[in-house]
TrEMBL record, chains A, B:
Function: Catalyzes two activities which are involved in the cyclic version of arginine biosynthesis: the synthesis of N-acetylglutamate from glutamate and acetyl-CoA as the acetyl donor, and of ornithine by transacetylation between N(2)-acetylornithine and glutamate.
Name of the protein described by the UniProt record: Arginine biosynthesis bifunctional protein ArgJ
Originating species: Desulforamulus aquiferis
TM spans (from-to): none
Gene transcribed to yield this protein: argJ
Site (Involved in the stabilization of negative charge on the oxyanion by the formation of the oxyanion hole): T119, G120
InterPro entries associated with the record: Arg_biosynth_ArgJ, ArgJ-like_dom_sf, ArgJ_beta_C
Length: 406, 406
């Protein structure tokens, strides 16, 4: 088990680590000249790792990127928002490849080192010429400062850009891990649930990096849900270029543990930002489950509560309807004795041993009005725990998704 | 496979069959003196069968009823709305038993022949004395006519009562099957998704009846979803009192097939009424999947589409966003080749071979404005098919569930 450590949080997002540059430019895929094309570039070829959607309908850029990440090295990531290049038939893969080819040509690196991600509407052919036309502007504006522009360019229905970076010391060497993410709808546990790009100057081989990412994603991005929909395009990519000059991090060492903690901090912070920015959400919901008979049971239980439409609507309405929490635990698939669970909203106990207790409704309602809302569940059926994050279900979720394409 | 037959639809709901009486009275569990206590009575002991929620948190009345149905015979069902008697601790089971005891006493039948169901808020102790006080009125008003009152008394957030009955001929004998149901939120496939009570005058033993019910429930009640939440209280009960005078129906005979068709027609009609009356819904959505490699894949695919919040919100907004349909198929768990599916909204083809086709957006939007909305998916990956029903996701779903208890 990897636990969250405390590291120095710094600014800089996806370019906080040594040797990374980024940019964000308008390519005309979004309306009104908004930024919609992002580029991330490493001055040196980097170890690459990825985690991908479990949806069997997978977008063309995901297919391309997965095969390239499997080779272990990458040096750039080009990302467009506004069109997912998913379900676009035979034209999808050539279009994704063309995005990479153009970026590689302008960056003067091999095309195989360029990864591609897309997000936006499904089933509309990618206007790839708009992207290739804007790629020179994206390469020309690569800089340390433009991490912010990059984080804006990958947004779709996101209300806020999402960036986070930390510094940690591994064997007297400063290592930086930073990243950015997008996502606010079609977010659900089961791999990677949105787009996120993480960069680090740590020296670590791609196999070890892949292992660290898998471990961390299960505790962060796979523990958030907005609406139960798992997208065709979601991925988390990590590039590690080694410019920090540390001794190569080997699996199962103390250094590996420290690195994982840093990576987990970045991924958890970004995952929570995504859940908080869930379409139409007014607040982040954090569900902590303890006392589960296994790690898997703990995770299933916590995610089931954050995924319940009924519970999410009750939180929106500040209704301390704990029965819906118990109900969601019950159909989660997690094993536990239903006559045992204690449930708390913040510090107010609302259920004991799976049944009602007297509680201060006004105080519970006040806690449900806060952001974040914290729910604690003790299943009293074992020693494992997990935390999941979600958001409330609001009128605005319906409004946003009733008219996404218009 | 049981297919839907065409039978004579008749009035009378849960008392349409010979020898069944019903009533609905106010017991003071709902506000404003609304009907909230229903009673169903068979003049003769009847074969009983049941299907129950898969939630591991199960309400006390469900526990009691399950054990009594397992004995094979029952003669009455007492049902209250307004309080689910779920998560009510050690008081739950005695309260459920007391409901049955009082009804049995007044009906002058053994208490073990009385089944109990409850629906409403979870985690609040059942005010059982209100129910026992109203039980004399319920028994006194038992009649053929009061099927309508009974169907109203079991409603919670339902907007309309739900009744259906058919007559069919089995070996020159008229057999009647009728029923009522309630449910509009916390509805999701995985048995039994709501309350439904079916009565028939057919002669059939309880084991064969149980088998017929299981088969039929999988194609009807288990194919509807409103919000993905599976309740603690849901059940479908069938009583068959044999008063039609037919020769006992044996499994796997032609007569059994006819009986199953009739039962399926009643269950499907009630299931669709529940989906149509989904909390806040403005329309019924019917998703027909063909070309699946197995029955299970077909059902998973169809249910996944009806369960997608994103798709449900798109239907509400009349947005022909077929990418969300394909996406939901992709994460359904069903096996299919993602480059094959054809998708139609009504008669408008919106996707071919998993990709975009040109289509008339205005006409598609007009079809999405109709009730029901019909979606046809051909996975082109096999020979199996399934139909699932759901409803759109609207502002009112959020409103209703943001303030259920208040």
């Amino acid at each position: 088990m990897v636990a969250l450590g405390s590291h120095k949080t710094i600014a800089g997002g996806v370019t906080a680590a040594l040797g990374f540059l980024a940019s964000g430019v308008p390519a005309g895929l979004k309306k009104d000249g908004k930024l919609d094309l992002a580029l991330i570039y490493s001055e040196e070829p980097a170890s690459a790792a990825g985690a991908y959607t479990t949806n069997i309908v997978q977008a063309a850029p995901l297919e391309l990127t997965r095969s390239r990440v499997a080779e272990g090295k990458a040096q750039a990531i080009i990302i467009n928002a506004g069109n997912a290049n998913a379900c676009t038939g035979e034209k999808g893969l050539p279009d994704a490849r063309e995005m990479a080819r153009r970026a590689g040509e302008l960056l003067n690196i091999t095309e195989d080192y360029v990864l591609v991600a897309s997000t936006g509407v499904i089933g509309v052919p990618l206007p790839v010429e708009k992207i290739t036309s804007a790629t020179p502007a994206a390469t020309a504006s690569l800089s340390k400062e433009n991490h912010a522009a990059a984080s804006q360019a990958i947004m779709t229905t996101d209300l806020v850009p999402k960036e986070y970076a930390v510094q940690l010391i591994i064997k007297d060497q400063i290592i930086t891990i930073g990243g950015m993410a997008k996502g606010s709808g079609m977010i659900h546990p089961n791999m990677a649930t949105m787009l996120s790009f993480i960069t680090t100057d740590a020296a670590i081989d791609s196999e070890t990096l892949q292992r660290a990412l898998k471990q961390v994603v299960d505790l962060s991005f796979n523990m958030i849900t907005v609406d139960g929909d798992t997208s065709t395009n979601d991925m988390v990519l990590v590039l590690a270029n080694g410019l920090a000059g540390n001794e190569q991090i080997k699996a199962d060492t103390e250094e590996y543990g420290l690195f994982c903690k840093g990576l987990l901090e970045v991924c958890t912070a970004l995952a929570k930002m995504i859940a908080r920015d869930g379409e139409g959400a007014t607040k982040l919901i954090e569900v902590n489950v303890t006392g589960a008979p296994s790690q898997r049971d703990a995770a299933m239980a916590a995610r089931s509560v954050t995924g319940s439409n009924l519970f999410k609507a009750a939180v929106f309405g500040r209704d301390a309807n704990w029965g819906r929490i118990l109900c969601a635990l019950g159909y989660s698939g997690a094993k536990f004795d239903p006559t045992r669970p204690d449930i708390f909203i913040g510090d107010v106990q609302v259920a004991r041993d799976g049944g009602a207790v007297e509680f201060d409704e006004d105080r519970a309602a006040a806690l449900l009005a806060q952001d974040p809302v914290q729910i604690f569940v003790d299943l009293k059926s074992g020693d494992f725990s997990a935390t999941a994050w979600g958001c409330d279900l609001t009128y605005d979720y319906v409004r946003i998704n009733g008219s996404y394409r218009t």
